[in-house]
């Protein structure tokens, strides 16, 4: 027993000698923590250093833009107006040269784009200042109120002014081309041309609200047409830089409006223009930033309110000084064009646009019917009949029930209005009424006998087709 136990103990001791004695394993998270922490810290530091230059460029660019606004407001203190302007022009050229230096010397395209973009954004301030010199040459040195002293510039003789305009225009064109080449090389020439034309509007000496609004409308239409034709399709102009470049074209338009508000205060023409711009933003701009169809429709429906107000103010300016002065034409002149606008916008809404077309047609027909009932006339009744016929034809083309019933209603009222002339004639000539009734009855009997069955068959086919309309 003792020998056997000793042998077993010896065998167990030998096996134990071959088993390595190791400490218990550490948790997996504890093993990986030092290495992962180091990698995360390095990545975090790299991210901070990558964000820092971007923030610095933003801060520097904003500071430079504020400096341009400060110059536009206060000018160059302590120097004559023309000398101060040349100092600002030299600073703009210095920004462009700094952008070129970043590319050539440091191979830094991001900093170069920032310098060149800010220099290009300075152009509206330049042209606004030059426009002040042009206004002073045409109208003399005007006396403005104290808070409008920034718009009061001295009258410069013709030749120095022409040389300033020519030299500054050439240099600023080069600055704009360099800036747009850095941000959108493929469309740099067209962007430069559109930008210079938009800024050239600031040189015109007109300052009254009517002329300014007309100029703003032409300018806005030109910018939107150029954007749809050239700048909305290239992929390079759909990035953040591309949107910034395309938005830059509208800055001269904003300067025009702000300058007019400073000179004349809020006017009816400016209010109408701003409401129209707001309607355009709600209808065309904001829906692009969402993919939810219901939200798009909400924005576009909301746009109808400022569009209606804009047209009401515009109609008041176009047709009379106040609403009571043209009460007889208010329904046609004030409402009918807006109805046409709603129908036109129905082809650009999110969805089928049936509701907008029906509402627009109902507004147009309702305005004409209301005009007939209040102050009827042959011209209004003919316009009502023509409008109703167009609506009915549109209903057949688009197969929409709402348009059909609106058109039929307008046609019935328009024709009924004309029939009352015949009724008045028949009341004074009883024999003519009897003769007309007899002729109608005989004519209908002949038509029914010849085409009655075909007419009922066509009507049945139309009913079947009408049921499929939306």
Characterization of this structure:
The protein is mostly helical and 470 residues long. The protein has helices at residues 2-18, 28-74, 81-104, 109-121, 123-139, 158-183, 188-200, 209-231, 240-248, 251-264, 268-285, 293-302, 304-319, 330-345, 354-375, 378-398, 401-428, 430-467. Helix 5 runs antiparallel to helix 6 (158-183). The radius of gyration is 38 Å and the shape is elongated.
User: Helices and strands: which structural class?
Assistant: mainly alpha
SS element count, helices: 18
Rg calculated over all Cα atoms = 38 Å
Q: Outline the biggest β-sheet.
A: none
* Coarse shape: elongated
Question: What amount of the residues lies in strands?
Answer: under 5%
Give unreliable regions as ranges. Answer: 1-8, 11-23, 28-33
Give the rounded overall mean pLDDT.
Answer: 77
Provide the succession of SSEs. HHHHHHHHHHHHHHHHHH
> What is the number of E strands?
0
Helix content: over 70%
Distance between the termini: 106 Å
């Amino acid at each position: 027993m003792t020998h056997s136990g000793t042998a077993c103990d010896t065998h167990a001791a030998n096996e134990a000698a071959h088993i390595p004695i190791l400490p218990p394993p550490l948790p997996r998270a504890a093993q990986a923590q030092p290495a992962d922490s180091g990698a995360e810290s390095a990545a975090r530091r790299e991210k901070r250093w990558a964000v820092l230059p971007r923030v610095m460029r933003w801060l520097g660019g904003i500071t430079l833009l504020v400096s341009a606004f400060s110059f536009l407001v206060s000018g160059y203190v302590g120097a004559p107006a023309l000398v101060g302007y040349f100092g600002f022009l030299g600073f703009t050229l210095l920004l462009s040269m700094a952008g070129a230096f970043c590319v050539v010397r440091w191979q830094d395209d991001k900093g170069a784009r920032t310098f060149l973009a800010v220099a290009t954004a300075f152009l509206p301030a330049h042209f606004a200042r030059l426009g002040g010199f042009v206004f002073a040459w045409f109208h003399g040195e005007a006396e403005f109120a104290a808070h409008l002293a920034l718009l009061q510039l001295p009258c410069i003789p013709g030749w120095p002014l022409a040389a300033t305009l020519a030299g500054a225009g050439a240099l600023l064109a080069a600055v704009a081309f360099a800036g747009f080449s850095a941000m959108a090389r493929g469309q740099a020439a067209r962007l430069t041309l559109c930008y210079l034309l938009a800024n050239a509007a600031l040189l015109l000496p007109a300052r009254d609200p009517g002329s300014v609004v007309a100029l703003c409308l032409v300018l806005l239409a030109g910018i939107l047409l150029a954007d749809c034709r050239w700048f909305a399709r290239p992929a390079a102009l759909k990035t953040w830089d591309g949107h910034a470049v395309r938005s830059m074209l509208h800055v001269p338009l904003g300067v025009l409006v702000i300058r007019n508000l400073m000179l004349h205060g809020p006017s009816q023409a400016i209010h109408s223009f701003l409401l129209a711009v707001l309607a355009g933003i709600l209808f065309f701009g904001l829906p692009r930033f969402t993919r939810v169809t219901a939200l798009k429709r909400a924005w576009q429906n909301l746009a109808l309110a400022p569009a209606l107000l804009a047209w009401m103010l515009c109609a008041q300016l176009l047709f009379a000084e106040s609403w009571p002065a043209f009460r007889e034409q208010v329904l046609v002149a004030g409402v009918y064009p807006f109805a046409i606008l709603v129908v036109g916008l129905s082809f650009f809404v999110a969805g089928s646009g049936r509701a907008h077309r029906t509402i627009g047609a109902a507004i147009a027909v309702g305005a004409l019917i209301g005009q007939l009932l209040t102050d009827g006339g042959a011209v209004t009744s003919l316009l009502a009949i023509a409008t109703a016929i167009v609506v009915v034809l549109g209903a057949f083309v688009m197969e929409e029930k709402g348009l059909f019933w609106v058109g039929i209603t307008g046609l019935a009222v328009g024709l009924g209005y004309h029939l009352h002339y015949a009724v008045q004639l028949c009341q004074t000539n009883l024999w003519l009424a009897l003769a007309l009734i007899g002729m109608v009855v005989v004519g209908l009997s002949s038509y029914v006998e010849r085409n009655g069955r075909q007419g009922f068959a066509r009507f049945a086919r139309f009913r079947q087709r009408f049921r499929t309309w939306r």
